[in-house]
Amino acid sequence: VDENTPTQVLEARNIDAVAKYIQEKNVRHIVVMVGAGISTSAGIPDFRSPGTGIYDNLAHLDLPDAEDVFDIGFFRNNPRPFYALARELYPGKFRPTVAHCFIKLLHDKGRLLKHFTQNIDCLERQAGLPGEMIIEAHGSFASQHCIDCKAQFPDELIKKAVQTGEVPRCLECKGFVKPDIVFFGEALPEEFFLNRHLPEDADLCIVMGTSLSVQPFASLPGFCKDGVPRVLINMERVGGMGSRPDDVLLLGDCDAGVRKFAKALGWLEELEALWEKT
Ligand code: APR
């Protein structure tokens, strides 16, 4: 291999080498870490892609700073912008992507140790990945509580509120109700900290569809031990991915990347069949 070996030849060779490693070493402790990029092909915008990302499309909410829409201090003061956005993002009308199905396939084959997601769309659950395999580091829309008295708020009432765009108020104390999504300024779930060293036990790490721009999630790939391969499947190179000799970069669309990976593993038909019925 020399410096003028075309990238795609390098990638193909590398992902074939990872597929071989998985089969020959019977790799069964794969840790996957994902972000919004694995859900964009489902129709859910990511946050930072120029032009299409959520943060480029909040002008109509005239926020001082786009990230205020997920800021707990801003929400206490004015929850309307969040609920305007929640209407577009609320789970129920989206279908999991091929990338979600690839993760489910890793689990079905007994090769997934843990799946860490920053996404709040619950599409991993919808793809059939069992809850105990998933760490939702930034929470999700799966439940909601009052931000003042912490009382739980009924699912059917939040769904109605999100549809009408009104701000749901606590039945106990009239405080604002917020889905259990981790806002800027809030702590991540304890479950994240209890599991965040798991990449140290991994025999392969796969990072997909994330800019690795938000801590502490972005530190996860660094816990993967030296000498353990790390695969990045992403439109662009991010974080420290590619800095280690065992790193493999599959730059481009996530769905295309997991198909390439599945093909190298001999799992492509199974992946397509799984996606067909999702
Ligand atoms: N295929 C491959 N890569 C993609 C695709 C795609 N179809 N779509 C987007 N990407 C890439 C983008 O190029 C970018 O590198 O996915 C990444 C998405 O990055 P972000 O938009 O920053 O999303 P994410 O990394 O999940 O954001 C992290 O920021 O706003 C907070 O809490 C929020 O969880 C979120 C966190």
Automatic annotation (TrEMBL):
Catalytic activity of the protein: N(6)-acetyl-L-lysyl-[protein] + NAD(+) + H2O = 2''-O-acetyl-ADP-D-ribose + nicotinamide + L-lysyl-[protein]
Cofactor info, note text: Binds 1 zinc ion per subunit.
GO molecular function, one term: zinc ion binding
Gene Ontology terms: cellular component: nucleus
Cofactor(s) named in the record: Zn(2+)
Chain sites annotated for binding NAD(+): 36-40, 46-48, 118-121, 210-211, 234-236, 254
UniProt domain Deacetylase sirtuin-type: residue ranges: 8-268
Record: residues binding Zn(2+): C146, C149, C170, C173
Enzyme Commission number(s): 2.3.1.286
List of catalytic residues: H138
Keywords, sorted A to Z: Metal-binding, NAD, Transferase, Zinc
Family (UniProt): Belongs to the sirtuin family. Class I subfamily.
Listed name of the protein: NAD-dependent protein deacetylase
Higher taxonomy: Eukaryota, Fungi, Dikarya, Ascomycota, Pezizomycotina
Residues of the full protein shown: 9 to 286 of 375
